[in-house]
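User: Design a sequence. Structure:
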């Protein structure tokens, strides 16, 4: 069992801020774990940032299992959380259970479900079975088509009520935490005060119990990132320069240079061996 458990995450509410970042492969998960991040999260955002899709609606269970396996192999300390992709849990509780089990068997410690009140029964069932669940409300990207794109949530009373009802339903069902995505900060604060489980915000301000960001946004892998995401590095520029240097050096013959290859010191010895080999081959 890894050191950071859902129980520990629950106990961090009000004591210590929770950190969470997405990771989709072995090397990034190794680094996230080494950095001391609490939750390493295989998000369905991989559809967009890894596979180049316009939204997350085409992400499959196969993709999630595949990436969860790679991440789980790398992480020793942090909690490994895996996202339930669109259509993997909405059709029936049975299907949701089967798919959650697949992610746990791929190495996840817990699963995340977008939505709250609509999935209270499923969350309850999973928790009873022993599968820890994190909920997700506010902006739920899997409802991209209904929402007509991505936008800030909580401007109307109806939206505030829906977000709060979701969070309370998740708490009741036994979820160990809830993501609040892209809500007005006051709404996130209200929810954080009203529920006993930790709230983990993304684009929802400082008055929450923790923060989650997407790997590519934190590291500046793309030229642009969402306005709420802080870029802690600009790897886009670093990677681009490295690739341009590599390309140029191969073209000019600068790479590989002496320290990157090995040759026979005794050329006579090599010529003798080569002659023998050529004779045998050309027989
Ligand atoms: O898939 C994802 O990356 C997410 C975060 C935005 C919370 O759900």
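Assistant: Done.
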């Amino acid at each position: 069992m890894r050191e950071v458990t859902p129980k520990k995450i629950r106990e961090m509410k009000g004591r210590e801020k929770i950190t969470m970042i997405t990771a989709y492969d072995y090397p990034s998960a190794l680094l996230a774990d080494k950095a001391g991040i609490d939750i390493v999260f295989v998000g369905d955002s991989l559809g967009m940032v890894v596979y180049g899709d316009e939204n997350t609606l085409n992400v499959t269970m196969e993709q999630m299992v595949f990436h969860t396996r790679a991440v789980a192999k790398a992480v020793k300390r942090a909690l490994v959380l895996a996202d339930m992709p669109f259509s993997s849990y909405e059709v029936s509780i049975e299907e949701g259970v089967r798919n959650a089990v697949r992610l746990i068997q791929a190495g996840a410690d817990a699963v995340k479900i977008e939505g709250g009140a609509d999935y209270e029964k499923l969350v309850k069932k999973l928790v009873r079975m022993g599968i820890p669940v994190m909920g997700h409300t506010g902006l739920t990207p899997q409802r991209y088509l209904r929402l007509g794109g991505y936008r800030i949530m909580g401007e109307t009373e109806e939206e505030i009520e829906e977000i709060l009802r979701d969070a309370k339903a998740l708490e009741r069902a036994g979820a160990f935490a809830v993501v609040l995505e892209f809500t007005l900060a006051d709404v996130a604060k209200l929810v954080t005060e009203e529920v006993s489980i930790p709230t983990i915000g993304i684009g929802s301000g400082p008055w929450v119990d923790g923060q989650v960001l997407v790997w590519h946004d934190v590291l500046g892998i793309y030229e642009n990132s969402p306005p709420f995401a802080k870029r802690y590095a600009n790897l886009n520029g670093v990677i681009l320069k490295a690739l341009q240097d590599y390309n140029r050096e191969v073209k000019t013959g600068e790479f590989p240079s002496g320290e990157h290859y090995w040759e026979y010191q005794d050329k006579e010895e090599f010529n003798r061996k080569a002659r023998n080999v050529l004779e045998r081959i050309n027989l």
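The chain is about 45% helix and 15% strand. Residues 118 and 146 are 16 Å apart (CA to CA).
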